[in-house]
Automatic annotation (TrEMBL):
Coiled-coil residue windows: none
Keywords carried by this UniProt record: Disulfide bond, Repeat
Species of the source: Anopheles farauti
Official protein name in the record: CUB domain-containing protein
InterPro entries on file: CUB_dom (IPR000859), Sperma_CUB_dom_sf (IPR035914)
Length: 358
């Protein structure tokens, strides 16, 4: 085992644990060590779970000599410390859950040394999900496509909690693709809350075999809790996806030359943050289109036109030729196409919006 490296250990199996220990364990560690291990789950919907089974370090006030320190992080950029450990000959397990990254640091001074520590990291269901869409299921040891679970397996009846976070200004839509949670005395369930934890407003609690209708949150955060049945079936598959502000759409014009007006949400008020609208406009064959922005809308200057902009493309696909990409000036110019199709996109990804479009 290396000491002081920076590689991330990716765990990709729910069936095995990653065992690690201080250098020299159980014969004792040396002076001046600075060791670091970073763990990450390679499986979506799982997080690293750390358990120390033995710790024997030089015990000092505030753990200023030899110590083990555990951190968790959501993005590898900022780490939250869960405190230092410098206990003497303790065999009581100490456990920590990664969210979804977990880091262990081990440091020693140049004086008294002791045995060291040993621990194991395994994958447990639950954790933080930040992808715009995904699927949540029961623990993989209960998946019918995998070999059967031995009796008494740790995660046979393991409860799982997932925190889902999508971009601000979006909501989350849930769809059960399968559910079979049945109990003879006390049935398990899947509960979905509109918020960050178990105390958030309940959107629904689901079990049985009948597929519920699709439902959604009112914010960009959701908390999903799974409590398995101990006397019956435990199978479910819950899909989620990020949902944007409803705007945009397909517009088909006729040959009567009647203009169609499009606006951003809340117009003439400022649209919600993180709004993305795409209108695809199609005219009869042989016709051309003109686009004119009304009310002298202005957009803010932003680096590389990334945080708020209007874009026009000659065609209906995302790689059609670009006619305009504006974020630095007023939108008073009339755009005339050379074909019968145009795409209009409005996008903002910041809190300080200035205006929508019409």
């Amino acid at each position: 085992m290396y000491c002081g490296g920076h590689a991330t250990i990716r765990l990709n199996s729910t069936d095995t644990a990653f065992n690690f220990s201080s250098p020299g364990y159980p014969n004792g560690y040396t002076n001046g060590l600075n060791c670091s291990w970073v763990f990450q789950s390679a499986l979506s919907g799982y997080h690293p779970y750390l358990s120390f089974d033995f710790i024997d370090l030089e015990e000092t006030g505030d753990c200023l000599a030899d110590f083990v320190e555990v951190f968790t992080s959501a993005d590898l950029a900022s780490w939250k410390s869960h405190g230092r450990i410098c206990t003497y000959g303790i065999r009581v397990p100490r456990t920590f859950d990664g969210t979804p990254y977990l880091k262990v640091e081990f440091r020693t001074d140049y004086y008294q040394n002791r045995t060291g520590f040993s621990g194991a990291v395994m994958l447990r269901c639950g954790g933080l999900l930040t992808d715009p869409n995904g699927v949540i299921t029961q623990p993989k040891s209960l998946d019918p496509l995998l070999p059967g679970t031995p009796f008494g397996r740790r995660d046979q009846f393991e409860e799982c909690n997932w925190n889902i976070s999508v971009r601000a200004g979006r909501t989350i839509e849930f769809t059960f693709e399968h559910i079979n949670i049945i109990g003879f005395k006390s049935a398990g369930f899947v509960a979905v809350m509109n918020g960050i934890d178990n105390d958030s407003p309940l959107l629904g609690r689901y079990n049985g075999t009948e597929l519920p209708s699709a439902f959604g949150t009112g914010s960009n955060r959701a908390f999903v809790q799974y409590v398995p049945s101990r006397t019956g079936a435990n199978r479910f598959r819950l899909a989620y996806r990020e949902v944007g502000i409803e705007c945009g759409g397909d517009i088909v014009l006729n040959a009567q030359y009647k203009p169609t007006v499009i606006t951003t949400p809340n117009y003439p008020e400022i649209p919600p943050p993180h709004t993305e609208c795409i209108w695809k406009v199609l005219a009869p064959a042989g016709q051309v289109l003109w686009v004119e922005f009304l009310d002298q809308n202005y957009l803010p200057r932003s680096a590389q036109c990334k945080t708020e902009y209007v874009q026009l493309r000659e065609g209906l696909t995302s790689n059609a030729p670009e006619l305009m990409h504006s974020c630095t000036s007023d939108l008073s110019k009339r755009i005339v196409t050379s074909s019968n199709a145009v795409s209009v996109k409005y996008f903002n990804d910041n809190i300080d919006r200035t205006s929508g479009i019409k």
